[in-house]
């Protein structure tokens, strides 16, 4: 997810597999589930912050690249973006090229802020893609939902000091909020299998439950700006890949 070239190659491999398998050249479900919590700054080969790219911009690019295959499906298709309740920690945001590349000049890498911001961006993207599909009268063919499994015991905090992650997991377990991956996958299945009318919803915690996300996540101007800026950067990566050295 951190390499645009790799994403494009994946699409080519997928199309070839569909062809070799004598299957319809389309897909019905895309789940953007990639996510990391990095504690140090790392830059991708294309000049983007690695964590932000993994958590948001890579998902944007993957969806854009695979959108023709989703839209050509003979049955209704769906995009599911796996986000996080941590998006609620963001109270204001700026959308520009620098914010998406997230190249911080600070000596201290603001990993918590970047993680929270990336999850809000993924949510904004989900709602904007849903709105655009509806404007094109395409809601019945392509639905888009966001899902938050809640707190799950995975290796997401492996880069944090052991004591911090250990205390966090113990506290969440004591509060009855910590889930196993096997339990948490239920919310993703709910979001994936819900009726098309659920497009634009925010699923949380399993059992088909939906909630309102943060007020900021419904800001349509911010979501449009994020889409436009992300799309400009997407096109630049496309052009760079198509231009011979």
TrEMBL record:
InterPro entries from the UniProt entry: NAD(P)-bd_dom_sf (IPR036291), SDR_fam (IPR002347)
Query: Which keywords has UniProt assigned to this entry?
Result: Oxidoreductase
Highest taxon of the lineage: Eukaryota
Q: Name one GO molecular function term.
A: oxidoreductase activity
Gene3D superfamilies (UniProt xref): NAD(P)-binding Rossmann-like Domain
Q: Which segments of the protein form a coiled coil according to its record?
A: none
- Pfam families, per database record: adh_short (PF00106)
Q: Which family does it belong to?
A: Belongs to the short-chain dehydrogenases/reductases (SDR) family.
Which PANTHER family is this protein grouped with? RETINOL DEHYDROGENASE (PTHR24320), RETINOL DEHYDROGENASE 11 (PTHR24320:SF227)
Name of the molecule in the record:
Uncharacterized protein
